[in-house]
Amino acid sequence: EVLPPQSRRSMRAASEAGQPSLAALEARNISAWFGDHQVLDRVSLTMPAGVITSLIGPSGCGKSTFLRILNRMHELVPSASLAGEVLIDGSDIYNADRKLVDARKSIGMVFQKPNPFPAMSIYDNVLAGLKLTGTRASKDERDFLVENCLTKAGLWREVNDRLRSPGGGLSGGQQQRLCIARSLAVTPAVLLMDEPCSALDPTSTRVIEETMLELVNDVTIVIVTHNMQQAQRVSTQCAFFLAAQGQPGGIVEHGDTDAMFSDPIDSRTYDYVNGVF
Ligand code: ADP
Ligand code: MG
């Protein structure tokens, strides 16, 4: 209630003019290569709007590659190539008519190692991606956006008295929430998180999980996690990735998280989720 209603209205208008608030993501027959080394083979997965989907599976089976493909980051690797489609609310993000910047605006990404701009202020870190949108915001609007994103990321109360201090001065868990706030500033419809808690202590992990469970009301979330308890705590749906020796990765099994953990269909899923080697 700090800001005049005028700025609230214009921020809301700005965000409504931007992206849909919730969207489903669908990968169809995704195959991926680095040079002639195939790392994914015809992976299809629907990630429904408003739920958390967990991608689980051993290292090297292509989870990060898959996640990056969902955000067109695969294209940044010169040797990389790709087949298949990624649809956000039915529209192909790789469509030639769709600008890369639009895909990036609608799909945010958070990485394993918190990567705020360390010397940049907390305030400016949140706004760092805003240039992408090409929208100009007044000082009031920027203030509102920073408060709103930090609140959604569960960080506002901890940092509102030091918004001008450097992002690098925060704890690891706070830095990760700052990265979440930064990714939210462009109002993405989907948030991709690649092992977002792997570098964090259990307390920070719990805070991030709580943040995700709040956020999923506003944004569709896909996470990669090696933490089986985490997958069970946060996700509605799970997909188990596996790459047989010398073979590209694929999804062995996917579905309702509780069912996958209590009653997996495939014995390889059973072994993985129960830590059988
Ligand atoms: P995960 O996230 O499940 O551990 P990745 O998607 O990181 O798996 O890796 C899948 C395969 O792709 C691995 O064999 C890995 O070595 C290979 N790979 C990943 N990134 C690159 C890259 N930039 N260049 C070449 N090979 C890569
Ligand atoms: Mg990975």
TrEMBL record:
* Cross-referenced SMART domains: AAA
Q: Does the keyword ATP-binding apply?
A: yes
A Pfam family recorded for this sequence: ABC_tran
UniProt protein name = Phosphate ABC transporter ATP-binding protein
* Organism name: Subtercola vilae
State the GO CC annotations: membrane
Q: Which PANTHER family match?
A: ABC TRANSPORTER I FAMILY MEMBER 17
Q: Name one GO molecular function term.
A: phosphate transmembrane transporter activity
**Where does the source fall among the domains of life?**
Bacteria
Q: Which PROSITE patterns match?
A: ABC_TRANSPORTER_1, ABC_TRANSPORTER_2
What are the record keywords, sorted? Answer: ATP-binding, Nucleotide-binding, Translocase, Transport
